[in-house]
């Protein structure tokens, strides 16, 4: 299958070279790699240009936006610019971060999963971060969730879900809508991707309520939001984040923020979340 990769970047001079080198060392190369330079003030663009001069697959495009890094909106707006820049036909479109090192068989393994089952809509591996010289799983989500850093979509599934939404929660609603439309999601725990910059390292103070806002716009309702907030705060080992998430939810509810999903999709999402929780509880009781 033909792979197209879009990489949004902002001030990634320390990492983007390693990411591109790992992609060009793949046993199955992507047909096209669009790197979107979103107003970087460092040497990111120059590094990408040096790779583009060596490899025909790589192209650099520029976008200007505010430097502030709010999770969701900035990165997906950059991705959308890259998506519109794609010129070659593709079967799979991937949104990769600019601070990853992929194992050499990463794309080939994704290809195997997509080709094995026409109903597979998304495939991904797992992010590992370095701690005390050892690469360990960046354990922020359930094992059936593909991290926003390394999303890969079958073109038909990507179109069915309406592409990616430029706001916090985009990397959850995409999977929920895949389930809604009957697409399968596969996570492969053999694929260990080195994540050079831990998630959230560049988020500023203005982003702290965004997760709760995302829970609201996903149609979770209060109780699912509360459970998800406890779980995420525990995983990040920052208990006070629980209250930030709830405050974000209440602020979004009061402001009647636009939803990411339709009422029908929200009902499906709540049923799906409750079913997953019941299944986990039943597994603990067995």
Would you give an account of this structure?
With 286 residues, the protein is an alpha/beta fold. It has ten helices and nine strands. The chain has a five-stranded mixed β-sheet with strand order 3-2-1-4-8, with helices on both faces. α1 links the parallel β1 and β2. α8 packs antiparallel against α9. It is globular. The N and C termini lie far apart (41 Å).
Low-confidence stretches: none
Main beta sheet strand tally, sense and closure:
5 strands, mixed
Give the topology string: H per helix, E per strand: EHEHEHEEHEEEHHEHHHH
Give the count of helical stretches: 10
Biggest sheet, spatial arrangement of strands? 3-2-1-4-8
**Average residue pLDDT:** 91
List the helices and strands and how they pair.
Blueprint: E1 3-9, H1 16-24, E2 32-38, H2 44-54, E3 58-63, H3 73-85, E4 92-96, E5 100-101, H4 106-116, E6 120-131, E7 134-137, E8 150-154, H5 155-160, H6 170-180, E9 184-195, H7 210-217, H8 222-235, H9 241-255, H10 263-285
Parallel strand pairs: 1-2, 1-4, 2-3, 6-9
Antiparallel strand pairs: 4-8, 5-9, 6-7
Helix pairs in contact: 1-2, 7-9, 8-9
Keywords:
alpha/beta; five-stranded mixed beta sheet; four-stranded mixed beta sheet; 10 helices
Summarize the structure.
The chain is built from ten helices and nine strands. The chain has about 290 residues and is of the alpha/beta class. The strands form two sheets. It has a five-stranded mixed sheet with strand order 3-2-1-4-8, sandwiched between helices. Strands 5-9-6-7 form a four-stranded mixed sheet, with helices on both faces.
């Amino acid at each position: 299958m033909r792979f197209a990769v879009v990489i949004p970047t902002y001030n990634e001079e320390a990492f983007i070279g390693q990411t591109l080198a790992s992609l060009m060392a793949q046993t199955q190369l992507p047909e096209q790699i669009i790197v979107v330079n979103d107003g970087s003030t460092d040497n990111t663009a120059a590094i990408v240009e040096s790779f583009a001069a060596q490899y025909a697959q790589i192209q650099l495009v520029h976008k200007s936006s505010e430097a502030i890094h709010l999770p969701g909106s900035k990165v997906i707006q950059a991705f959308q610019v890259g998506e519109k820049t794609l010129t070659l036909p593709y079967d799979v479109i991937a949104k990769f971060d600019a601070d990853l090192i992929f194992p050499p068989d990463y794309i080939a393994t994704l290809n195997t999963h997509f080709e094995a089952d026409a109903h597979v809509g998304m495939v991904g591996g797992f992010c590992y971060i370095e701690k005390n010289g050892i690469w360990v799983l960046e354990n922020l989500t359930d094992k059936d969730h593909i991290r926003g850093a390394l999303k890969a979509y079958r073109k038909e599934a990507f179109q069915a879900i309406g592409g990616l939404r430029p706001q916090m929660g985009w990397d959850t609603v995409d999977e929920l809508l895949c389930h809604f439309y009957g697409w399968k999601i596969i996570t492969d725990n053999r694929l260990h991707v080195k994540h050079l910059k831990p998630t959230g390292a560049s988020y500023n103070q203005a982003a702290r309520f965004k997760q709760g806002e995302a829970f609201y716009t996903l149609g979770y309702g209060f109780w699912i939001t509360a459970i998800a907030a406890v779980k995420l705060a525990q995983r990040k080992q920052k208990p006070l984040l629980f209250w930030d998430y709830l405050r974000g939810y209440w602020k979004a509810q009061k402001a009647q923020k636009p939803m990411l999903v339709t009422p029908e999709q929200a009902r499906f999402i709540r049923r799906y979340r409750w079913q997953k929780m019941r299944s986990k509880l039943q597994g603990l009781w067995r």
